[in-house]
């Protein structure tokens, strides 16, 4: 079984029944990742696998700390023996260090999981922040507003996402520029 096939199967088994909306979101994020293949080169399957797996830490079957990037990455590393780069992308997706800081878990996240290449971190962040909870495409600004409204501005998630907003917009801009460069004859980095 290939990396992406394995990732879809695992994510579906953890999310589709207990959290169907989270599963729909994960499928949408993976679809977005596929659309970025022109800038990903040999890492296209890696990003798609991380995209479909990025939220498995929400699954009641594996949630331990309540911080889904850490729970998902630990599960992938400890129970699945997953590709180290996929694990790192899941651990650090969508400015996870900032949320870990809000939760008092930054030291654990940083010490257990190294950061992946910045261009791949940007790409996964872009995919997550341009996909609604139902798996449809949106803008980073609309996604940020939706998250703050859903969780509330004074919650851990609300505070973290507001702090992360500048980096989310910057990463989205970088990904957009890379896609524009490729569409006018550039090569993936």
Give an overview in words.
The chain has 189 residues and is mostly helical. Helices cover 68% and strands 0% of the residues. The protein has helices spanning 3-15, 20-35, 37-40, 44-53, 68-78, 84-91, 96-103, 106-112, 118-129, 140-151, 156-183. Residues 22-130 form the HD domain.
**Shape summary:** globular
Q: How much is the average pLDDT?
A: 96
From the alpha carbons, calculate the radius of gyration and give it in angstroms: 15 Å
The largest pleated sheet is described as:
none
What letter string, H or E per element, gives the SSE order?
HHHHHHHHHHH
Give the uncertain stretches in residue-range form. none
DSSP strand count:
0
Structural class: mainly alpha
Counting H and I runs of at least 4 residues, what is the number of helices?
A: 11
Give the helix level as a range of percent.
55-70%
Strand content: under 5%
Write down the oligomeric state. single chain
Measured between the Cα atoms of the first and last residue, the distance is 27 Å
Compact summary:
The protein has 189 residues and is mostly helical.
Outline the secondary-structure elements.
Elements: H1 3-15, H2 20-35, H3 37-40, H4 44-53, H5 68-78, H6 84-91, H7 96-103, H8 106-112, H9 118-129, H10 140-151, H11 156-183
Protein name: HD domain-containing protein
Organism: Streptomyces physcomitrii
Pfam family, one: HD
Key words describing this protein structure:
mainly alpha, 189 residues, 68% helix
